[in-house]
């Protein structure tokens, strides 16, 4: 699966490969130490965070409820 | 607000389904999903917490484009927890794009089937809230129908991924067998090579030795021949 940052996809693939192996071979078998993939995760993260900034994606936005608050877009005025 | 729920049983153990869930995308049933990115991931008290950003391409009808804009890529935030000791996987997804008008909150959980722990029970719930848009309930119905359709595709996708994992495992096994075969063939070939090289060397030595002997003989006979030829000059 691709990354939102085109140049991050290769780093993501390397990390995903490590994670999936770790998940099935270690984590599901009770070994929760995830240090093995940490170096892959670090470089991939740096790339993704940069790509998200470029795409103007702010994950903090999702934490707050917009609907029902003052930030909610008002319905268009009814035709009279 | 619309609430939609669904359940499905997979004839696979929880561990298999959990692995497949991470590899769900890309799949041919959900071509709209174009990217998944892990933004945060950590293990806390034996539970794996993951925050992912899911990007998908949506083809909106013309009327909807006037509301949501012509944005073709939509983003969603997915938070998940995997607990291997209780065999639970829960994923909660919320749309990031169009938050001001539309909120789609989806919860998917995978757990061992209460009656048969060798099977996995999928529970899915989606809450659709639309505000500030004319025909709120119409849009909610439309989205709920879409979720219902996609849920079916999602299950097919998980089955598809499980098949793929099975095939990969078989392929690894086959490759291993092939490698062993190759190793044997290679070893045999090497032995043959060494033998033939050795034989060739022996032949070379023999022929070289023979040649040397012949040369010696030739050399020895040359003076005689020269003598015989001399009178003719």
TrEMBL record, chain A:
GO terms for biological process: phospholipid translocation. It catalyses: a 1,2-diacyl-sn-glycero-3-phosphate(in) = a 1,2-diacyl-sn-glycero-3-phosphate(out). The keyword Lyase does not apply. GO terms for molecular function: phosphatidic acid transfer activity. One of its GO terms (cellular component) is mitochondrial intermembrane space. Keywords: Disulfide bond. Pfam families: UPF0203. Belongs to the TRIAP1/MDM35 family. This is TP53-regulated inhibitor of apoptosis 1.
TrEMBL record, chain B:
Residues 1-170 form the PRELI/MSF1 domain. One of its GO terms (cellular component) is mitochondrial intermembrane space. It comes from the Eukaryota. Signal peptide: none annotated. PANTHER family: MSF1/PX19 RELATED. This is Protein slowmo. It comes from Zootermopsis nevadensis.
């Amino acid at each position: 699966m691709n990354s939102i940052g085109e140049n991050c996809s290769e780093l993501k693939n390397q990390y995903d490969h490590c994670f999936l192996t770790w998940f099935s071979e270690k984590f599901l078998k009770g070994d929760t130490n995830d240090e093995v993939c940490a170096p892959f995760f670090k470089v991939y993260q740096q790339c993704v965070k940069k790509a998200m900034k470029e795409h103007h994606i702010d994950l903090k936005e999702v934490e707050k409820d917009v609907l029902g608050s003052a930030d909610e877009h008002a319905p268009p005025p009814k035709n009279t | 607000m619309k609430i939609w729920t669904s359940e499905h049983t997979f004839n696979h153990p929880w561990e298999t389904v959990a692995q497949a869930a991470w590899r769900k995308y890309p799949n041919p049933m959900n071509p709209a999903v174009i990217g998944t990115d892990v933004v945060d991931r950590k293990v806390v008290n034996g539970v794996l917490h993951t925050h992912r950003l899911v990007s998908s391409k949506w083809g909106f009808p013309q009327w909807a484009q006037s509301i949501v804009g012509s944005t073709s890529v939509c983003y969603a935030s997915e938070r998940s927890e995997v607990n291997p000791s209780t065999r639970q996987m829960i994923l909660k997804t919320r749309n990031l794009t169009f938050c001001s008008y539309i909120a789609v909150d989806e919860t998917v959980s995978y757990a061992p089937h209460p009656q048969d722990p060798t099977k996995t029970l999928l529970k899915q719930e989606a809450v659709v809230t639309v505000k500030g848009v004319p025909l709120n309930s119409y849009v909610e119905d439309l989205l709920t129908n879409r979720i219902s359709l996609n849920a079916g595709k999602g299950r097919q996708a998980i089955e598809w991924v499980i098949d793929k994992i099975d095939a990969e495992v078989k392929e690894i096994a086959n490759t291993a067998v092939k490698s062993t075969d190759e190793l044997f063939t290679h070893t045999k070939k090497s032995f043959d090579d060494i033998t033939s090289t050795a034989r060739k060397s022996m032949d070379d030595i023999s022929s070289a030795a023979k040649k040397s002997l012949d040369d010696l003989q030739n050399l020895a006979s040359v003076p005689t021949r020269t003598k015989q030829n001399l009178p003719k000059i």
